[in-house]
């Protein structure tokens, strides 16, 4: 049986752990490393599928937790699945709800069976088990789907994290057994273990023994420092097989993306570009620009003078500032479009620097120019 996704390692960058790869899915073959825009409720906020296609998005995310609670996976299934429902014909990845339950839901109670929590929309008690999460993702129909896991606090005790990792491995096994469509939906295991090397190793070895088609590294970007995150990646990525994709969940600033690629990560997702866009903050090659700021009232330059996106070629800071301050939806469309273009272009440049074996020089350029070296 053909795996639902096939990863091919094309080239290793000479001086780092970075890899150039190809990820074949039922909805296309895409280059890695890649950034995946987040479309929590079956839409990447303020973006049309056509615009996402134009800026080079390949795989986008949707959230199992949200779509289960609203509109219900049954409606998405009746529509023919997520691709049809949201008119997106490239890749779709859904997470399992693990992170949302632990970050969004009120009062939650974790048991061996699964997690009990209160629905953040109506306060009703809900229950999500590893099998239920898989059933929802099977019905939503993404190309890539996640096992249900616990995303524990990074600064929890060793004993807590050890128990959590061992339960997450048992849940992963249960999810594999419940998975109905392994030939066209690729189920990834999620490596946990917080900042403990031996627990990250145990989690990775447990999941690798179950032979998943891809592996996520979860439990990061949850309040730990970038140095701590990079340190965890330094020892976790090598526990994962070279011939499978590695997906770092919840990471999406330029510096963290580059440092993740250097440590062998292939896939990233983050709400950051679209979330900060909604309050008028833009990512530029000269650092963050808060376009609603009064100083841009008569600034008729583009958001980023080094950017060739549709927004930077046609609209000024003054105009976009006006729209944001007037709560005009077109304003957040423009900032969202630019921020996503910025990160997708960054990843295209990262892939080129892997081809050219000069990723570390590119990192230096980005950290210096984009203001990440400023303490
Ligand atoms: C924004 N930070 C961030 N950390 C994440 C961790 C996970 C995870 O461990 N899921 N099982 C998912 C999404 C995340 N987003």
Task: Give me the secondary-structure topology.
Layout: E1 6-12, E2 19-25, E3 28-32, E4 34-37, H1 49-54, E5 59-63, H2 64-69, H3 73-78, H4 82-85, E6 91-95, H5 98-103, E7 106-110, E8 115-118, E9 125-128, H6 130-140, E10 144-146, H7 158-178, E11 186-191, H8 197-209, E12 215-217, H9 226-236, E13 246-248, H10 254-262, E14 267-270, H11 272-277, E15 281-284, E16 287-290, H12 310-314, H13 317-325, H14 329-355, H15 359-369
Parallel strand pairs: 4-14, 5-6, 6-10, 10-11, 11-12, 12-13, 13-14
Antiparallel strand pairs: 1-2, 2-3, 7-8, 8-9, 15-16
Helix pairs in contact: 6-7, 7-8, 10-14, 10-15, 13-14
The structure holds 2-(methylamino)-1H-benzimidazole-5-carbohydrazide.
Can you walk through the features of this model?
With 375 residues, the chain is α/β, with parallel strands linked by helices. The chain is built from 15 helices and 16 strands. The protein has helices spanning 49-54, 64-69, 73-78, 82-85, 98-103, 130-140, 158-178, 197-209, 226-236, 254-262, 272-277, 310-314, 317-325, 329-355, 359-369; strands at 6-12, 19-25, 28-32, 34-37, 59-63, 91-95, 106-110, 115-118, 125-128, 144-146, 186-191, 215-217, 246-248, 267-270, 281-284, 287-290. The strands form 4 sheets. The chain has an 8-stranded parallel beta sheet. Strand 2 and strand 3 (28-32) form a beta hairpin. Helix 13 (317-325) crosses helix 14 (329-355). It is globular, with a radius of gyration of 20 Å. The N and C termini lie far apart (52 Å). The model has no long low-confidence stretch (mean pLDDT 97). Bound molecules: 2-(methylamino)-1H-benzimidazole-5-carbohydrazide.
């Amino acid at each position: 049986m053909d795996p639902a996704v096939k990863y091919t390692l094309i080239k290793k960058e000479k001086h780092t752990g970075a890899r150039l790869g190809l990820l074949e899915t039922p909805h296309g073959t895409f280059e890695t490393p890649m950034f995946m825009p987040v479309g929590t409720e079956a839409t990447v906020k303020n973006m049309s599928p056509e615009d996402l296609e134009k800026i080079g998005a390949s795989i986008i995310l949707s959230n199992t937790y949200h779509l289960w609670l609203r509109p219900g996976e049954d409606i998405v299934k009746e529509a023919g699945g997520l691709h049809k429902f949201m008119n997106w014909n490239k890749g779709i990845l859904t997470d399992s709800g693990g992170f949302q339950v632990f970050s969004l839901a009120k009062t939650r109670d974790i048991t061996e069976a699964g997690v009990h929590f209160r629905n953040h929309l109506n306060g009703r008690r809900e229950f999500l088990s590893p099998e239920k999460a898989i059933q929802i993702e099977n019905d939503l129909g993404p190309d890539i789907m996640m096992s249900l896991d616990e995303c524990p606090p990074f600064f929890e005790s060793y004993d807590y994290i050890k128990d959590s990792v061992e339960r997450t491995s048992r849940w992963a096994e249960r999810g594999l057994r419940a998975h109905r469509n392994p030939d066209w939906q690729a189920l990834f295991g999620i490596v946990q273990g917080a900042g403990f090397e031996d627990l990250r190793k145990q989690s990775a070895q447990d999941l690798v023994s179950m032979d998943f088609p891809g592996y996520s590294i979860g439990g990061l970007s949850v309040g730990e420092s970038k140095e701590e995150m990079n340190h965890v990646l330094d020892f976790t990525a090598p526990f994962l097989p070279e011939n499978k994709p590695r997906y770092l969940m919840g990471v999406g600033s330029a510096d963290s993306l580059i440092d993740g690629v250097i440590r062998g990560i292939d896939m990233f997702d983050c709400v950051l570009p679209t979330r900060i866009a909604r309050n008028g903050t833009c990512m530029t090659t000269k650092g963050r620009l808060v376009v609603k700021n009064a100083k841009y009232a008569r600034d008729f330059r583009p958001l980023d003078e080094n950017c060739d996106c549709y927004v930077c070629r046609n609209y000024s800071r003054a105009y976009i500032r006006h729209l944001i301050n007037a709560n005009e939806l077109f304003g957040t469309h423009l900032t969202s479009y630019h921020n996503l273009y910025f990160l997708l272009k960054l990843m295209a440049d990262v892939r080129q620097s892997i081809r050219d074996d000069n990723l570390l020089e590119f990192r230096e350029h980005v950290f210096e120019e984009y203001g990440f070296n400023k303490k």
